[in-house]
Fold this protein.
Amino acid sequence: MRSLIVIFLLSTFVCAQDSMGLNTAPIQPQEEFLNDFEVEYSSTPNTINDPLMGYNRLMHNINTGIYNYALSPALDAYNYVTPVGLRIGIYNFFDNLAAPLRFLAILLAGEPKNAMDELGRFALNSTAGILGIFDIASENGLYSHRNDFGITFGKWGIGGGFHFVLPLLGPSNLRDTIALPLNAFAYPTNYIEPSELAIGLGVLEAGNYMARHKATLDSMYQDSLDSYLLFRNAYEQRRAQLISETKGQ
């Protein structure tokens, strides 16, 4: 159960990555892909391998219902009672916890300099940034090199396979789904005891992340002509872009 929670919160980082306006080039942590979804990806050509479209649409519709009728009201309440500054601090704290995951993925992708940058960010934010609550590294020009094992696999030449929508987690593909256990293995909260604390931290991280992007999520789910295609195209094109960037293309 604990591992599933960890996988869930990791996927929300990038909203599939989760993953993800996560960028392998240095970027501000606050610049997430959700803000650019509809503008950039609503007209992606239909070249995505999607043999499970029937299942994927069904699961997307289920996820949409869960979001609209359960998660959305809870996120509204969370945003109402939680000050913006506190939400930013919580985001920074969990983003800092993910640094070891990024370090390993970047190192295995053959980018030792970027890996050392990530390690330096972790050391600086964990100390001067008070356990990562304050992103001192970014304030001093040391930005994160975003990565995960799905992107690393892509750099190794492993294709995405077919598109696949995960229950609750949303869009993914075969390669990135296989990478999820490795992402979980490298994520520190997976080793926290008792398990109830680990689950609580996972819920807090996932909820805080989604609350941070709620306006964009609302628009994506409710305002697009075909939200399934929007999520699918955005995910696949963004992941392809991130992998291309790791190859220097």
Notes: The CA atoms of residues 79 and 137 lie 26 Å apart. The longest helix spans residues 53-81. The chain has one domain: 52-248.
